[in-house]
Design brief:
This protein is of the alpha+beta class. The chain has a single domain, classed as START domain (Alpha-D-Glucose-1,6-Bisphosphate, Chain A, domain 4, 2-Layer Sandwich), CATH 3.30.530.20. It has a five-stranded antiparallel beta sheet with strand order 1-5-4-3-2. A hairpin with a 2-residue loop joins strand 4 and strand 5. The longest helix is centred in the last third of the chain and has 12 residues. 21% of the residues are buried.
């Protein structure tokens, strides 16, 4: 199972973080299936990829962990591909997500 983690500090206002993250995940061609105040979950669109390559993305917004006015956001992307192989769809998608969230 491929699983990639990413932590970043977000300097956007706390109220806007969940909606901005959802917007960026949609720009990465992911379907947002849940958006709460401290958690966002997204996935590949059903039917577009084989089930074994289906990517799930979990984003945890940790309001209790702040540093210099920034809030910690943890991203986990995973699927059933074998990490590091040519067929691993998760790594390129994870890199795309990192770039999309880089400047929040």
């Amino acid at each position: 199972m491929a699983r990639y983690n990413y932590d970043c500090w977000v300097g956007t206002s706390a109220e806007q973080i969940p909606s901005l993250i959802s917007q960026r995940l949609k720009e990465c061609e992911l379907e947002v299936i849940y958006q709460g105040n401290d958690y966002v979950k997204a996935r590949d669109f059903p039917g577009k990829v084989p089930l074994s390559s289906f990517i799930i993305v979990d984003v945890l917004i940790e309001y209790s962990r702040q540093k210099q006015g920034k809030i910690l956001v943890t991203v986990v992307a995973q699927n059933n591909d074998i990490p590091g192989t040519l067929g691993d769809r998760c790594w390129p998608k994870f890199q795309q997500i990192q770039q999309a969230l880089w400047n929040l």
